[in-house]
Amino acid sequence: MKKSCAGWNLVNDAVGEISFSIFLFKFISMPRSLMVLILATVSISFFSAGALHAQKIVSIHADAKGQVTIDRIMLQGADLAKEVQQRLWRSYMSNGKMVSSISLHFDEGVTEEVRNEVLFAIKTGQEKTLTVLSLHKYKKRFEDIGASKQDKIKKHFPVLFQRNYEEIKDKS
After folding, report:
1. pTM flag (> 0.70)
2. Three-class HEC string of the chain
3. Which backbone phi and psi does 167 adopt, to 5 degrees?
4. Confidence of residue 76 (pLDDT cuts 50, 70, 90)
């Protein structure tokens, strides 16, 4: 029961200050390892809550020799679709979100054939991830779910529908 007396508020303020002082004293006097554990838990909770979540970009690089690198891992052209699919799916399974975009860089001198193979592999990886995602969420292929559910997937996972990969030509 709350009383609106000025004296009662002074008592509540004093009790609040005393309880905080007791908490602070107990926190400071506890063993150092326990204090570090508590601080680490609080900071991990803060960071995992998404307050400082950075957007992740999958970077793909193709050179004039036809070698493809995805985030510092060398791949053969045939493995690119599978690797794109795995990276998109792992990011979804880890936190319910996917990477924000795919960035593609071609060196000067990359043939049109290699370009088309890389673009096709990326698109294939995106389509396979879309199929797996819709089967996982709705037990149906993307084409078979309703328009509202399709719109929801398009809104929450735009990387699956990205077709412009920010092509940048390096002059190396």
Report:
1. no
2. CCCCCHHHHHHHHHHHHHHHHHHHHHHHHCCHHHHHHHHHHHHHHHHHCCCCCCCCEEEEEECCCCCEEECCEEECHHHHHHHHHHHHHHHHHHHCCCCCEEEEEEECCCCHHHHHHHHHHHHHHHHHHHHHHHHHHHCCCHHHCCHHHHHHHHHHCHHHHCCCCCCEEECC
3. -60, 125
4. confident
